[in-house]
Amino acid sequence: xxxxxxxxxxxxxxxxxxxxxxxxxxxxxxxxxxxxxxxxxxxxxxxxxxxxxxxxxxxxxxxxxxxxxxxxxxxxxxxxxxxxxxxxxxxxxxxxxxxxxxxxxxxxxxxxxxxxxxxxxxxxxxxxxxxxxxxxxxxxxxxxxxxxxxxxxxxxxxxxxxxxxxxxxxxxxxxxxxxxxxxxxxxxxxxxxxxxxxxxxxxxxxxxxxxxxxxxxxxxxxxxxxxxxxxxxxxxxxxxxxxxxxxxxxxxxxxxxxxxxxxxxxxxxxxxxxxxxxxxxxxxxxxxxxxxxxxxxxxxxxxxxxxxxx
Length: 310
Description:
Elements: H1 7-12, H2 20-34, E1 40-43, H3 51-59, E2 64-69, E3 76-77, E4 98-99, H4 102-108, E5 113-118, E6 124-136, E7 144-153, E8 161-165, H5 172-180, H6 183-196, H7 206-229, H8 232-235, H9 250-266, H10 270-277, H11 281-291
């Protein structure tokens, strides 16, 4: 994790401003340095679909691929022509012939390919797609080979979307499913705010954010891991419920973990065990129901496996 500061604040402190995309590039550089034998796919929304981040992923293509939103009017070209024989007298070309923009290709395509793909929230959706490859060009920067995809939701509930990846071997279905799969992180942010106190008013100073925010994200992961390992007698209890609820929510997970901690750790201490065991069963459950729920916020209604995206 890293801390983003507004441009005005950086200017006031005499510090070079870094955009979220630039901060993400730094974190990805650390990640692939830590794990040189692994290959990662980074998925971000339009704020991370920058030419600079795509160029970084292309330079480190052995370790990293980028999937993000794309621009309908992006400048795309063929690769520069290969010059054979002796060295040319003039400077070699940096790009080949100009290619139609993605929106022009889509408008001219009569027959679109139909696919059934995984969608936001774990469902599936029938879509029409158009895809092409090209070299993404930005003035003053190198060409980047990319594969772009136009996605049209046949149900009409989701707007048309342009996606791209720096991994030309990735299938169209996988590009779409990789991007729609990122909805889970939105649920994570919402649950962190509601139950663990991320972005509360008591944590706005720079040092507090740097200390607390990474710990809270780590705690979210620990709770999910502990819940997955709990005995069934703890995971069966769901304190937070509503009509139509089918999936496990973070409120269920943190309540079950806290109940387990009270019973197996706090009340297991010799000094507490005797007093707790003397309580009658129904009253003991009342006590646990008061101690186990997380102290922050209200239930958000979002499950760990949300039913739809936005």
